[in-house]
Amino acid sequence: MIKSLTPFGFVCLLGLWLPAFSAPGQAPDVSALRSMIILHEGRQKPLDTYARTMLTQFSGRSRYAGHSALEWLAKVFFTPEKTKQHTIFLINNSQTLEAMGLEPGEGRRYSYQQLAPGLKKLSEVAAEVQKIEEKDRNAVEAEILRIYNNLTQYINMAATFQFAIPYETFAVKDSSLAHYLGLEADSAQSYYSLFDKAGLMFQVLDTLKSKPSTDNWTPLEQEIMKLTQKMFQWSNFYRNIPVNLIPMMQEGGEVWLSPWDALNDRNTLSRVKLEVDALAAMCESYLRSEASGVKQARSAFETAVRERVASDIAVGSPNLELIYNQVNPFFWLKVIYGLGALLLLASFIGWRRGFYFSAALLVIAGVLLNTAGILTRMAIMGRPPVTNLYETFIFVGWACVLLGLVVEFFQRRGIGLLCSGVSGFFLMMIAGKYAREGDTMGMLVAVLDSNFWLATHVVCITLGYAGACAAGVVGHVYVVQELLRVSKDRLRDTYRAMYGILAFGLVFSFVGTVLGGIWADQSWGRFWGWDPKENGALLIVLWCAILFHARMDGIIRGFGFALGAAAGIMVVMFAWFGVNLMGVGLHSYGFTSGVFYRLMAYGSFETIFILSAWVIYLYRQNSGQKTS
Amino acid sequence: MLRRTKPVQFLISYKLTIACLLWLFVLTLWGTVYQVNHGLYPAQQKIFNSWIIPTWGFLPLPGARTILWILFFNLLTVTFFRFQFRLPKLGILVLHLGMFLLIFSSWVTLHFAVESNLTLEEKEASNVSADYHLWEISAWTQSFTGDTLLKQVEAHDLAGLEPGGRLSFEQHGLQAVLSLYYPNCRGLLSAAPGTGSPPPLNASGIRQLDPQPASQDPVENFPGVALSVQIPGEDTQNLLLYGGEGEPTPVVKGEELVYFQLRRKRYLLPVTLGLVDFQKEEHPGTRMARSYKSIVEIFTGAVHRRLTIYMNNPLRVEDFTFYQASFGVSNEGESSTLAVVRHPGRLLPYIASIVVAVGLLIHFCLMLWKYAKRQNGGPASGRGARRGNKEGKND
Questions:
Q1: How far is it, in rounded angstroms, from Cα B79 to Cα B237?
Q2: How many CB atoms lie within 10 A of CB A437?
Q3: Is A583 left (phi over 0), alpha (psi -120 to 50) or beta?
Q4: Which of B33, B312, B353 faces A450 most closely, judged by CB atoms?
Q5: Looking at residues A602-606, what average pLDDT do you find?
């Protein structure tokens, strides 16, 4: 949900980010904050995950300038002024900058300071773009909304702890007032430190009712009025900051609040005062570079939360997710599978034994890591392995690798390993792109919230995708082998692998499609409705059925079957996420942006490959050259 | 002998199967892309449920219905004339039997399944559901029994009616003549200039119907009709009925009022369903629905019981199934929309799926057994190699 910030609001925020009086020389260790729980997009997650998600979403990277995402987040929270120059906003399309009235600079990443002059224009354009249906937006419009959304979230994050950061604007100049309030005179104060003294200030303000003319006010009274007016301005402005750290039960159920939500409602604050105190102490410790203070405040916060809500709200334990974040398996799997594929290819050139076994070890290690990663995600979310588009890629990648290993176990020709390495690498690469769109462990819409169907239909369909994709990869290998005129024995083994894997894909695609029909009957009242996603699955089944029947009848032979299997990858790509681009149908929960051109590029490459291979094959046939 | 005849040879050919599957592939792709700009319903009507697809004004291409029938006969003749009824082929046979049943079940669904919907506000009950696309001209008298509104309804389907057609409402002793019918129109509150005759009766004050081009998606069409209602012993009443208005138009007949309305076609349900409470739970901190459910009471005769309908957990009563489809929130409170499907052949796809699954399992087990025998150097290993079995051999 995009928070609408008025241009005035932007200017205010710019003005309010005054240099903190006591910014730290060196940031303290914030590892104690890793396990702190935040509610974001409907899910309780550790701050570590939140930091990684937000930084990846903004910049496409999970670290900034050698610092971890959590360290970056702590800076945004506690010293926002210092992060204005951080070049964290990735802009994919230079026309977006032109729409903001800015000149494109060097590089693709920009800082808030660079983008700030164009914020007013951006908010106006974004408001217009919001009125356009998502499926009708072009790439620039989608990018404009993405940048606007990112900037808004950044501004909200930067505003979260403003209440606890000392500012000169709240410095108490009058020494008698400072003494009255028990604060240090002429020293920057935070909003919260004055908020705590509100009772004392209101006592003075009450007496001003009998002094309508400000000419009769004492300097103390005048300063109290100025301070309270500034505080009032802040409390009016800092509302609806959706950085939700404090859980509580209200009449409507469970809610999570930001510190500002608590400060802006006295009844709420009275219930969560200890937590707000702890958060303020956390900020103060950070600003004094006291890691132990940060840790203490973190513990105090957690203790206060658990004591207050233990019986009402299940606040999760994030340890498993922290380990998952630390290991980051699906990042390393790209490297492992890619390296495995390269080593396997090298084994065809020389030192076969050494390269072959290295490749095999890498791929086996990869599939074990892949399995562990998937199981960990299942344990964290309490759900079957495939619930969103990102998870389809990591699961299909895993299944393709496994299929390749099974083939390799029986044949020991290297084809299976090659299939594993290549498909695993490409699918993890694609998964990595989707990881940039936000938290990959999102919440499910109501109709998807069924562990039984997620475990059956979705798993079967994705296994079907895996079979068709893996068969397509082996199909490419067969085509190349055929054109290179390898021995009949090798060709036969490749053919058998391709045939067997495609049969696996057909069976699971079909079973998954049928299970989907049964689920649709349970949810929507009809077994089949020609929904685009249903049609996509049917296309895979039909394509595989066509190939098998054509092979049985002798219309196509090994080479034709291989070309068909290779083309089958295009069918799978269309069914998998091509239909999401259409933005219609009951399955349009997996809508993504920017995929269309990549799909077209892949389809063009594949078509050129298939047609070229076919032409060469036909030429050889016609010129009487020996073929298999 | 029959096997060698040309028609049978044609029907059992793999090429026919492949051609049908290929064309079905093209139709599925075409229909999917067609939906983007035209919507699901027009795609279903034009491509998936049609016999012939007229293309470019002159070229008739076979629709999915034609292809599925051809596939059905192809499969039927293959079963009788080509299939080998031997143990190794048992799985394939059972699998294709399941395919039969699937195609058959699609025919049953097309002809017998009826989809409608029922929207209830909290504390409201009803025993009728409304069609999504079809309309009816209904007439009723009503009375209250306690809190319950009882209606004595007679209705005529709008489909198939033409101007000049006579409608008889025997229960209410009335006859009507349809003088005007627009499949899609707007209701105008002002009459065209120059019309001197008294305005027609209409509850919303509509004086004229303004015809509009019909939308491809019938959900977006609002028809309008003009009726001349002949009341015995009284003057003929001219009515204008518009599908976009919610209020019925009352006609005085003696001491009672007879209400006329052009409304979505109604279906009588086997039970009365009342919405006790609609509950929606969102994921905390978001507007995304985590779950939504309707707590309903169903009344069958003197017995009533309470139960919950929610996503993936429909209510089944006789041939009817009620699914949680949607909801609404207004100043008056919350409402729940249930999708209602009447489908006597609902279990057929399940049976077909089970048969296919059994066939796959049998085939898989037989293949596994054959492979194991081959690995152990059994007789199957040599035989398969000598015969040059096409499956798994690169020839």
A1: 64
A2: 18
A3: left
A4: B312
A5: 92
Nearest CB partner across the interface for A446, out of B289, B321, B393: B289
Q: Which two tokens stand for residue A103?
A: 């000149």
Q: Give the Cα separation of B165 and B158 in Å (integer).
A: 11
CA angle B271, B272, B276 (to 5 degrees): 130
Task: Find the residue in A nearest to B361 (Cα).
Answer: A507
Query: Which residue is it, tokens 């190794």?
Result: B88
Handedness of CA A607, A613, A615, A617 (dihedral sign): negative
Residue of A nearest to B321 (CA): A525
Contact B288 A443 (CB under 8 A): yes
Q: One-letter amino acid identity for A384?
A: P
Query: What pLDDT digit, counting tens, does each position of A508-553 carry?
Result: 999 999 999 988 888 888 888 898 989 999 999 999 999 999 999 9
pLDDT-derived band of residue A593, with 50, 70 and 90 as boundaries? Answer: low
CA distance B173 to chain A (A): 39
Residues 6 or more apart from A613 whose CB is under 8 A from it? A479, A483, A563
Q: How far apart are CA A348 and CA A490, in angstroms?
A: 13
Identify the CA nearest to A49 among candidates A303, A377, A385.
Answer: A377
The verdict on a CB contact (< 8 Å) between B18 and A553 is yes
Please name the member of A530, A543, A550 whose beta carbon is closest to the beta carbon of B48. Answer: A530
What is the DSSP code string of B234-282? SPPEEEEEETT--SPEEEEETTEEEEEEEEEEEEEEEEEEEEEEEEEEE
Q: What's the rounded mean pLDDT across residues A404-408? A: 93
Interface test with B, best of A482, A514, A588 (most B CBs within 10 A): A514
Asked if B22 and A546 come within 8 Å (Cβ–Cβ), the reply is: yes
Residue B113, helix vs strand vs coil = coil
Does the distance separating the beta carbons of B35 and A584 come in below 8 Å? yes
Q: In whole angstroms, what is the distance from residue B218 CA to residue B42 CA?
A: 9
Beta strands A87-90 and A109-111, pairing class: antiparallel
Q: Which residue has the tokens 């925020």?
A: A13
Inter-chain touch B349–A539, beta carbons under 8 Å = no
pLDDT band at A591 (very low <50, low <70, confident <90, very high): very low
Task: State how far the Cα of A86 lies from the Cα of A373, in Å rounded to an integer.
Answer: 32
Using CB atoms, which residue from B15, B105, B285 is nearest to A42? B285
Interface touch B21/A545, C-beta < 8 Å: yes
pLDDT given at position A342: 95
d(CA A54, CA B272): 51
- Strands B114-121 and B125-145 turn out to be antiparallel
Q: Nearest residue of B to residue A499 by CA position?
A: B392
CA A183 centroid distance within chain: 44
Q: Identity (one letter) of the amino acid at B195?
A: T
pTM: 0.85
Nearest chain B residue to A498, by CA: B392
* Interface predicted TM-score (ipTM) of this complex, two decimals: 0.84
Dihedral sign of CA atoms A332, A334, A338, A340 in order: positive
Residues A471, A166: Cα–Cα separation, whole Å: 63
Taking a C-beta distance cutoff of 8 angstroms, is the pair A89, A59 a contact? Answer: yes
Query: How many Cβ pairs within 8 Å bridge chains A and B?
Result: 164
Is residue B133 within 8 A of residue B154, CB to CB? The reply is no
Task: Enumerate the residues of chain B whose CB falls inside 8 A of the CB of residue A532.
Answer: 32, 35
Question: Cα(B247)–Cα(A321) distance, rounded to whole angstroms?
Answer: 57
Q: In A379-426, at which residue ranges do the beta strands (DSSP E only) sit? A: none
Residues A312/A250, Cβ–Cβ less than 8 Å: no
Q: A567 and chain B: CB distance < 8 Å anywhere?
A: no
Identify whether the C-beta of residue A205 lies closer than 8 Å to the C-beta of residue A225: yes
Per the CB < 8 Å rule, is A443 touching B283? yes
What CA–CA distance (Å, rounded) separates A590 from A242?
24
